[in-house]
Design brief:
It is a single chain. The protein has one domain: Calycin beta-barrel core domain (Lipocalin, Beta Barrel). It is built from 2 helices and 10 strands, in the order αββαββββββββ. It has a 10-stranded antiparallel barrel. The longest helix has 11 residues. The two termini are about 30 Å apart.
Length: about 180
């Protein structure tokens, strides 16, 4: 199963173009955007930095951990531009017969410019990577499904963060995207 997990990330390396639609439910808006992004493997030195930034103990064999540098540039249909770079690392903590789970570490989070540890789950049967991030105000559930080495489907749901112990219920944003390699 680990070979399918690594193969997923090997396919993600390269230049991608994403066409996305965001539905802001709080103010009933729909926005389209185009993102160009590059994903490159992370050096062992930068993997150690991501671990250090998150005060996360080194799990041992760093070479076996998927780690990448992401840089992107987004332009919305309203002309708003956003660019960012970050480093991220996936540390598997559970591997059962149907999925791999673990911690998803970033040196800079999307919603909040700080290191952050999130949870991930990978389903080899569907090639879906599901990442759940607890931000201060929202909980982001981000799904990437690798259809083939050149096509990914993206779904992002942001929930208003509920009180501790309560289920996710109130959605503030839903995003859908088609991501094509080298497009």
């Amino acid at each position: 199963m680990h070979s399918q997990f690594q193969q997923f990330f090997d396919c993600c390396v390269g230049n991608w173009v994403a066409e996305r639609t965001y539905h802001y439910l709080a103010h009933q808006e729909v926005e389209r955007s185009r993102t160009e992004f590059q994903i490159e493997p992370l050096s062992e030195e930068l993997k150690l930095k991501v671990l250090s930034d998150n005060v996360y103990p080194s799990p041992g064999n760093l070479a076996a951990l998927p780690g990448y540098h992401l840089s992107f540039y987004t332009v919305s249909e309203t002309g708003e531009e956003v660019s960012q770079q970050l480093n991220f690392l996936f540390v598997p903590t559970q591997d059962n017969s149907t999925e791999i789970e673990g911690d998803y570490l970033r040196d800079r989070a999307y919603e909040e410019a700080r290191p952050l540890i999130s949870h991930f789950r990978f389903a080899p049967e569907t090639h879906e990577l599901l990442m759940t991030t607890q931000y201060t105000r929202v909980v982001s559930v981000d799904s990437i499904t690798l259809v083939n080495p050149n096509l990914r489907i993206r779904k992002i749901i942001n929930y208003l963060r509920p009180p501790e112990g309560q289920p996710l219920a109130q959605i503030s944003l839903v995003g859908f995207g088609v991501e094509q390699k080298g497009a």
